[in-house]
Amino acid sequence: MDLREKIALITGGSTGIGLGLARRMVQAGASVVLVARGADKLAAAADSLRGEATVQSGQSRVLTIAADVADRATLHGLPQRVVSELGGLDILVNNAGLNHRGPALSVTAEQMAQVIEVNLVAPIYLTRRALDVLRPGGAIIQVASLAGKVGFAKQTSYSASKAGLRFFSRALGEELAPRNIHVMCVNPGPVDTDFFGDIRSAADLTFSQPMSTVEEVVEATLRGLALRQAEVDIPVASGWLATLGYLSPGLTRLLLPLMEARGARNKAAYMRRKGQL
Ligand SMILES: NC(=O)c1ccc[n+]([C@@H]2O[C@H](COP(=O)([O-])OP(=O)(O)OC[C@H]3O[C@@H](n4cnc5c(N)ncnc54)[C@H](OP(=O)(O)O)[C@@H]3O)[C@@H](O)[C@H]2O)c1
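^ thats the input. predicted complex w/ NAP below
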């Protein structure tokens, strides 16, 4: 997809993967609307992007909207607001996400429902609203996770939300292909962002797969857009492993102790790097 003069709406665009995608889009000449809750982080993100736009693509515009994607009333008007303020909408990136980690019995029912609301209901709702205004030739990118390909212990509702998002995307992609709208799901393994918060709370198994940088995720996403892929796994080999794990639960149980031991070592190294150990 040629990103010049395209208009993108990106939830969770103030940091991490969302900001990385916004940066590359602006560098390529697109305008972006960033949505997140924290106004300060949004403002800092927009400032850094406007710097890029001035230097490399004078036509790009950057707007920020401080909002919680769990607030359906706000979501309802977002796509139309982008059209009113920037003149159209070509790309929706559903990227804002939440994880309450821990054994199912230590996570409340309310927290589980919140994960589903932010990671699954909000992207579906916003996608549906965006479909009324998205221009032909446009794209919808859903940031899911490898946790949505194989059920992970200690992040049950997170796995459920991301699996749901993947299947929503696959089904919608089939429907929208004749309208020339590309729907793509991005499934990263661990990525070096602030998403982990207190790294101790993340399951060892999460770190059994190689950690990607934001740039690697962005690169793979843009490649997926260019190739019109339905799904992108990052890293690719971890995606194969996740599919194998899903298809062969017995084999997964056999390999689990090895993967957890490897994950524990990687996690300790990561915590040291981040000054959390
Ligand atoms: N990092 C990983 O290892 C990893 C792996 C697989 C998938 N993912 C997925 O990647 C996506 C982005 O995560 P990231 O790693 O880039 O994390 P991040 O750096 O923590 O970014 C999360 C972004 O989402 C925003 N956000 C969170 N909750 C929100 C809400 N309720 N409403 C609006 N905005 C909200 C945050 O800003 P505010 O807090 O200010 O709202 C921030 O801009 C998530 O969907 C996550 O599930 C991450």
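Helices lie at 16-27, 39-56, 72-86, 109-131, 156-176, 214-227, 236-247, 249-273.
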